[in-house]
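dumping the sequnces here before i forget
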Amino acid sequence: MFYLVIDILGTIAFAISGVLVAMDKKLDPFGVFIVAFVTAVGGGTLRDLLLGNTPVTWLLQPIYIYTILITVVLSILFRKQLKYLRTSLFLFDTIGIGLYTLAGVEKGLDADLLPVMCIVVGTITACFGGVIRDILCNEIPVIFRKEVYATACIIGASSYFFLIKLPIKPNYIYVVCILIVITVRLLAVKFKIALPTIYPPVESKK
Amino acid sequence: MFYLVIDILGTIAFAISGVLVAMDKKLDPFGVFIVAFVTAVGGGTLRDLLLGNTPVTWLLQPIYIYTILITVVLSILFRKQLKYLRTSLFLFDTIGIGLYTLAGVEKGLDADLLPVMCIVVGTITACFGGVIRDILCNEIPVIFRKEVYATACIIGASSYFFLIKLPIKPNYIYVVCILIVITVRLLAVKFKIALPTIYPPVESKK
Amino acid sequence: MFYLVIDILGTIAFAISGVLVAMDKKLDPFGVFIVAFVTAVGGGTLRDLLLGNTPVTWLLQPIYIYTILITVVLSILFRKQLKYLRTSLFLFDTIGIGLYTLAGVEKGLDADLLPVMCIVVGTITACFGGVIRDILCNEIPVIFRKEVYATACIIGASSYFFLIKLPIKPNYIYVVCILIVITVRLLAVKFKIALPTIYPPVESKK
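..and the predicted 3d for all of it:
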């Protein structure tokens, strides 16, 4: 139940981020829906495929497709209002990655993976919906270029394996780790912290 | 048997559409073959992966790869003649999506999915070969931008679940639904029916 | 054991090729790592997914991710030295495709595929890491456009099925086939042999 709520909230958050990118590219309503759908379920689908959890979750639980459909219809209808929320695109994204990271960690644990691989699976779940979204929209994935994005997922997912050793109820640990992901990203954006560039300033001029 | 014939015809139709796009991008013969191959089997492969039907069909039945190989060789040899058929690119595509949509619906039924998910699986089978083709060729997928394409698949696949309740032989229903997909698309192109734009005219000018 | 060594060497070779392409695109360190990772494991991952070997290899054997991580860190630290090795990018690639082709053929044999399909699986293993790398970096995959690349894999993989009929120890056959792939590519590059163009010279002018 707790897991389902996490997943639905993340689905809505990511679908809206997909709608915004797709509308930027002037896609038609069907294209907007597909991009929103892929953004929302892409990371989890890749995770399920890599783990061999098939048929993938959203084929068995129609709630995901209906959730995304309603989100897309509402987003299109209220797209003018959405425009004013554009600056909060990153907020939706941030909540989504927090929720998805921990959902992914849980699936990794279910598959008896090593902690390091659970962290990888959590990060894939959170980040690859956006990667596939950017590929569909013919852009180099934004998370490869700027902002502490995946780093926030990795820190949050890693925290889980430290906190789980303490005498705290698992559900609390989940919430704390989700908040860690969100906090790390918000702080990074607020204080403009980014991964150090590895290119000399002269080269990046050209 | 009936299913196999459907699949081979669709394979040829899609492979030619892949050849035409790949030659537009001036790919070498190997690139042309890969794009044709992916266009032809990409939708079905994604469907098989999502459903967990592995090894995927074309790895077990060499008829697909040989069919595509022969189609590509003939298409390259007769590429000048093919050029005059360029306006019929959309006809090949149209037959292909009709055939593939119903092949996908059948696979969804085999996996005991809900009707709504069978429709999704049918649409993925029909449309995602073209999506992967466009991604490989570094384009925003054409079906996200114009024409009633996926819509035709959705209408045809949905018809199946209405017609199946009538006392008609399943094979006839298949043929009727395939024709519905083809008809919807042809009519849409002829009368220039497209999904309504969701962007204000001023914005789309820039 | 022999198989593991092949795989690790190929992983390092491909990861470096990924780092070089990613740094060309000015990705941040995380993006460089992901592109290196995908280049290194992408072909094998696609192979495992198509065959249904899940969870995919690298989720179960952390040695791959650690190998790639160390390779990326060293490549970034010594990136200036790497720059002088840029002309040898194709050498790393070449060794990698030789190693991966045969690793793929072996997996195809394990899955009881027909020889023609083992050759396809070997070629996918070798070539599709680079294809996914180029897609992530928003380029038309280089192997679709120039150089005898996949052709070398196909020739090397096919040789296996000829040589296996001779009374030679399998491990020797592996090494010979890997060397055939490498030799074919090196000769092709040295003598500028490419697949024949299928486009008339006038058209390619525009």
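The mean pLDDT of chain C is 83.
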